[in-house]
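Practice problem. Given the sequence and the SMILES for adenosine-5'-triphosphate, write out the predicted structure.
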Amino acid sequence: MQLSGRGVGCVRGGREVFSGLDFDAVAGEAVAVIGRNGSGKTSLLRLIAGLLVPAGGTIALKGGDAEMTLPEQCHYLGHRDALKPALTVAENLSFWADFLGGECSDAAESLAKVGLAHATHLPAGFLSAGQRRRLSLARLLTVRRPVWLLDEPTNALDVAGQDMFGGLMRDHLARGGMIVAATHGPLGLDARELRIGGVA
Ligand SMILES: Nc1ncnc2c1ncn2[C@@H]1O[C@H](COP(=O)(O)OP(=O)(O)OP(=O)(O)O)[C@@H](O)[C@H]1O
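Answer key:
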């Protein structure tokens, strides 16, 4: 499996953010997208996820599921945790499993892996920032998708949480998945660097 971008351009609000961007990621590989604030890291993840339309170039996944689009084979984990505060932890995960569809792993097992087994019946609105992030990570484990697009994924995680997430990312790569992560700091695993818009 190979994710490739060729000559990708991005325009936001009528202004060019980047152009002519080439990138590749193969199965089992992580790419760390690095660049100064406003250079277009989030925009690149959203282009791959199909949430924005490229101003130029192509983005394609070779060797994936031929019946599915690239966005259907991606998980996009944004800055903000997409959670419904009135629903419990377990209900949020179940919502995402239904919404995303496809093959699902055991939700309780996913919550245990991210350290939220004790909080399954708590409304998500009561969670701390780090706990909300952990719940978002559980979504990646419950619905299996090969391409993880992660926007500063370790934000709000404590040191143990960062170690836990490092392990989850390594497991994902060992299963032939790939990761494209926008980051200002170390990702916690070996990654190919993709610099956009000059040095951070
Ligand atoms: N909806 C929008 N309309 C107009 N311009 C936008 C919009 N969203 C983002 N931009 C602009 O696009 C540029 C790239 O933003 P983006 O969020 O991709 O950068 P980033 O590299 O992820 O930044 P940071 O490191 O601060 O998170 C910025 O100049 C931003 O102001």
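Check your answer against the key. The longest strand covers residues 15-26.
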